[in-house]
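> call design_seq(struct)
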C-alpha cells in the first residue's frame, strides 16, 4: 500500500491510500474524493495533473491528451503509483466532490441524425426512490454511460436544460470503431435501457461575469455549449454572446434548426460556422475553429470570457489564440472531450 498526497491549487492537502495496481483516480474515489475526470481511458485529458514526487507507471493513453508526460504530467485515470506520490492538481478543492455520484436508469426515447457522423440522443430517466423523476444537473455537465453488454464506460455532455420531466438530450459525434458509437449507430433502438452515472463535471457558466462571452466548440464539443446557450436564453442574458463552431466538412455542421433556435432565444447571439475543408460554394468561415476565434478576437471586442469544448488538439490551438489576444487565463473555461 502506498500513499498519495493530493495538492489542490488553493493549498489543500489530501492524503489517500492506494492499493497495488490501483490508479490515483480510483484510489481517490475509494476515499469518496471524486476528482474531475471524463473518459476514464486516457483519451480526453480531463484528469490531467502533475506528479512532483514519487515513481509511477502510466497505462495506455493518447499522447494528444498528455503532451507534458516527460515533465511529470500524468492522467490520473492511468497513473499507478510504485511508491508514495505527491500529485499537484490544477484546480481548487471546491472542484472535488465529496458525495457519491448518482447512478440512474434511463430508456432511449429517440435517436435522430444531427449532421453527418453525429446523433441526437434523447433519454427518459426512470423514476428513482431517492432522486425522484427529474433531471437535475448544471448546464455544462456530463453523464457517464455504460456501453450495453460491456464494462466499457463513455462520457457525454448534456445538451438540454434541467427539467422535472426526466428528459436528457445528448449530441454525440460517432467515432469510427468506438464502443458506444458502434452501439448507437448500428444497434440502439427506442426503448433500450441504459445505465448512467452522473451528473459530473465543473464546466459551467460564470453567471456573475458582465463580460462578452465567446463559446468555441468543434467535433464532439457541441452539446455543453448548446446547454449553456439555452441556459443564457432562459435567463435573458444581455451581454454580447458569440458561438464559434468548427467542423472538417460542411455536412458535419449542426442542423440549421438548432442554430435558429439559439438565435431566437438570444437575439444578440452571433454564430460563426467554420469549415476546415469547405467546398467551393461554402459561404461561411473557411478554416478551423481556432482560426475563426482568432479573426473574431482581432475585431477588437472588450476582453471576453472564453468557453472551449472539443477534442484536445482544438483546445490547445484555441487556448493559444485566446492567450495571444490577452484573454486572462482565469477567463478561459475549458471542457476537454475525447473524439
Amino acid at each position: 500500500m502506498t500513499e498519495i498526497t493530493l495538492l489542490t491549487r488553493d493549498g489543500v492537502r489530501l492524503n489517500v491510500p492506494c492499493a497495488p495496481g490501483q490508479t490515483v483516480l480510483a484510489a481517490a474515489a475509494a476515499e469518496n474524493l471524486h476528482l474531475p475526470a471524463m473518459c476514464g481511458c486516457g483519451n480526453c485529458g480531463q484528469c490531467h495533473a502533475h506528479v512532483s514526487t514519487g515513481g509511477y507507471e502510466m497505462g495506455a493513453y493518447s499522447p494528444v491528451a498528455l503532451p507534458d508526460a516527460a515533465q511529470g504530467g500524468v492522467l490520473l485515470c492511468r497513473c499507478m503509483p510504485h511508491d508514495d506520490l505527491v500529485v499537484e492538481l490544477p484546480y481548487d478543492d471546491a472542484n472535488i466532490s465529496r458525495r457519491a455520484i448518482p447512478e440512474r436508469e434511463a430508456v432511449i426515447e429517440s435517436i435522430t441524425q444531427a449532421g453527418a457522423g453525429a446523433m441526437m440522443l434523447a433519454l427518459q430517466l426512470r423514476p428513482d426512490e431517492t432522486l425522484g423523476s427529474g433531471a437535475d444537473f448544471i448546464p455544462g455537465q456530463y453523464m457517464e454511460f455504460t456501453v450495453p453488454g460491456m464494462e466499457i464506460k463513455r462520457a457525454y455532455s448534456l445538451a438540454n436544460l434541467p427539467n422535472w420531466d426526466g428528459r436528457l438530450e445528448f449530441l454525440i459525434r460517432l467515432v469510427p470503431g468506438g464502443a458506444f458509437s458502434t452501439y448507437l449507430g448500428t444497434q440502439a433502438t427506442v426503448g433500450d435501457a441504459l445505465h448512467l452515472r452522473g451528473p459530473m463535471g465543473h464546466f459551467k457558466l460564470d453567471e456573475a461575469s458582465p463580460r462578452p462571452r465567446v463559446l468555441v466548440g468543434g467535433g464532439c464539443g457541441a452539446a455543453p455549449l448548446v446547454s449553456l446557450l439555452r441556459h443564457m436564453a432562459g435567463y435573458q442574458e444581455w451581454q454580447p454572446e458569440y458561438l464559434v463552431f468548427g467542423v472538417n466538412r460542411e455536412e458535419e455542421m449542426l442542423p440549421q434548426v438548432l442554430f435558429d433556435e439559439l438565435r431566437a432565444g438570444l437575439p444578440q447571439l452571433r454564430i460563426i460556422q467554420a469549415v476546415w475543408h469547405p467546398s467551393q460554394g461554402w459561404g461561411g468561415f473557411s478554416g478551423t475553429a481556432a482560426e475563426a476565434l482568432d479573426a473574431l478576437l482581432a475585431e477588437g471586442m472588450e476582453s471576453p470570457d472564453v468557453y472551449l469544448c472539443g477534442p484536445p488538439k482544438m483546445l490547445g490551438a484555441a487556448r493559444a489564440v485566446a492567450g495571444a489576444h490577452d484573454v486572462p487565463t482565469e477567463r478561459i473555461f475549458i471542457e476537454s472531450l475525447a473524439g
